[in-house]
């Protein structure tokens, strides 16, 4: 049971429900293949049925952790820190990103964009979901748009989302892992016909790393 005092610290972004943090290789999108420190924050109500980290959804099972502890561990491992979830924008990211930047770290976020964009980011990876669409400000801030393709209808959704981001935003189609054998040929064909898009794969799963 979280005390009122602890909850107040969580609400302010001084403490956050930490699911896990680890140093690894970025497996997806523009920075794939590069070393980065990941901080996975618990809590998400977007509820994608194919989510591969459903254990992150319930923030209550992940202990509120002081951001100072997270920052010290991250900065000791890498100058690039990726905040992911869950849905990290469920919480106020202002103090976490400030603390990371004060340590000289670059701040990246992976988000559905469903909530207010807080924090100061060097890179915003927007992965929109039909269930709960991004806010206008996240569309504008996105450096890359990563649409997960579970079926062919997701390609139409991808185009709808691409129309909302800036012209400098990099566009990715990524097959949903459990359905990748069916979706990869579809995506390849689509990208060849629509070369503004790029293919993103979950290379960390092929490499068998976190």
Automatic annotation (TrEMBL):
Q: Which reaction does it catalyse?
A: 6-carboxy-5,6,7,8-tetrahydropterin + H(+) = 7-carboxy-7-carbaguanine + NH4(+)
Which residues does [4Fe-4S] cluster bind?
Answer: 44, 48, 51
**Cofactor comment text:** Binds 1 S-adenosyl-L-methionine per subunit. Binds 1 [4Fe-4S] cluster. The cluster is coordinated with 3 cysteines and an exchangeable S-adenosyl-L-methionine.
Q: Does the keyword 4Fe-4S apply?
A: yes
What InterPro entries would the database entry show?
A: 7-CO-7-deazaguanine_synth-like, Aldolase_TIM, rSAM, rSAM_sf
* Keywords noted in UniProt: 4Fe-4S, Iron, Iron-sulfur, Lyase, Magnesium, Metal-binding, Queuosine biosynthesis, S-adenosyl-L-methionine
Record: residues binding substrate? 25-27, 40, 84, 210
How is the subunit organization of this protein annotated in UniProt? Homodimer.
Q: Which family does it belong to?
A: Belongs to the radical SAM superfamily. 7-carboxy-7-deazaguanine synthase family.
Q: What does this protein do?
A: Catalyzes the complex heterocyclic radical-mediated conversion of 6-carboxy-5,6,7,8-tetrahydropterin (CPH4) to 7-carboxy-7-deazaguanine (CDG), a step common to the biosynthetic pathways of all 7-deazapurine-containing compounds.
Kindly provide the name given to this protein in its UniProt entry: 7-carboxy-7-deazaguanine synthase
């Amino acid at each position: 049971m979280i005390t009122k005092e602890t909850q107040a610290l969580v609400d302010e972004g001084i403490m956050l429900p930490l699911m896990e943090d680890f140093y690894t290789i970025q497996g997806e999108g523009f920075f794939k293949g590069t070393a980065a420190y990941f901080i996975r924050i618990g809590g998400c109500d977007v509820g994608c049925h194919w989510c591969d980290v459903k254990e992150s959804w319930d923030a209550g099972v992940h202990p509120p952790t002081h951001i100072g502890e997270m920052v010290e561990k991250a900065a000791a491992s890498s100058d690039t820190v990726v905040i992911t979830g869950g849905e990290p924008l469920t919480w106020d990211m202002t103090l976490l990103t400030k603390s990371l930047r004060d340590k000289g770290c670059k701040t990246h976020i992976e988000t559905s964009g469903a909530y207010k964009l807080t924090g100061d980011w060097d890179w915003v990876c927007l992965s929109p979901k039909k269930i709960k669409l991004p806010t206008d400000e996240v569309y504008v801030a996105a450096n890359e748009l990563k649409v997960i393709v579970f079926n062919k209808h997701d390609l139409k959704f991808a185009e709808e989302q691409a129309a909302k981001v800036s012209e400098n935003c990099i566009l990715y189609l990524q097959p949903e892992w459990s359905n990748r054998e069916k979706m990869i040929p579809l995506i390849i064909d689509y990208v060849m016909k629509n070369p503004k898009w790029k293919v993103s794969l979950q290379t960390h799963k092929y490499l068998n790393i976190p």
